[in-house]
Prior knowledge:
The chain is mainly beta.
Amino acid sequence: MVEVKTHWSTAEVYMHGAHVTHFQKHNEPPLLFLSQLSHFQDGEPIRGGVPVIFPWFGPRTGMLTHGFVRNHAWELENSETADDGSVILRLCLPEIPETSTHSPFTAEYIVTVSDELTLEFVVVNRSRTENLEFENCLHTYFAVQDITEVSVTGLKGVTYVDKVDRFLEKVETGERIQIASEMDRVYTNTTAATEIHDPGFQRRIRVDKENSASTVVWNPWIAKARQLPDFGDDEYRGMVCVESGNVGSNRIILPPGQKSALKVRLSSDGL
Ligand code: TA6
């Protein structure tokens, strides 16, 4: 695990899954939620932080949910400190068994730590003839003081698939989305920034994204929290996932030799 300290902040990045588990600005609560019960063992994804999801989103019969790259050790290619004091880590995915059965690609992940956290997940289609079809997502768990007081803005008018209501397609009518039960919504064809308003921490978190057409909003709530072995029964109160990627109807078909760069910039200020 690499520990990063800058003038503004601290961060932690595990080679396992290229998983950012911690980012915290001085004099602010952690920006990212990390479960106290996360297992931190091989063969299992870390629960919380920013899981890197590729090449599929969601369950696949007989395989890990959310693809395989979050479950392998990445390598730290290099780290550097910019003139302004920002720290940039560049991680790459080494050869892994799955890549032999999958059409050839390379993946790298650039983590930039400053008073913001910027994450860029880059995939190159290394085939000379075949398209590379995939879903990608930075499945970010944000820390909140009390989910019942939180609202998410930026998605009004956007169509979503409601995974807790028969996967029905709906249109978001709320300026401010509030969470009072399990929520699992895949918003499609939206490139908009979103904000998480958290009066408990007196904080507003902003998610800016590039090359992402989907935003997923998830909270397991009580029953689902109880079913997750690596998640505390009450931890649903302290987190919300606002995820940026290209999933479902927004999946990517990358032509031979082309590059896909999914980027999010996570920032916060006082409410
Ligand atoms: O992004 C929401 C979601 O797809 C939920 O359906 C839930 O499965 C969540 O991801 C967590 O998935 P995981 O495999 O990390 O437990």
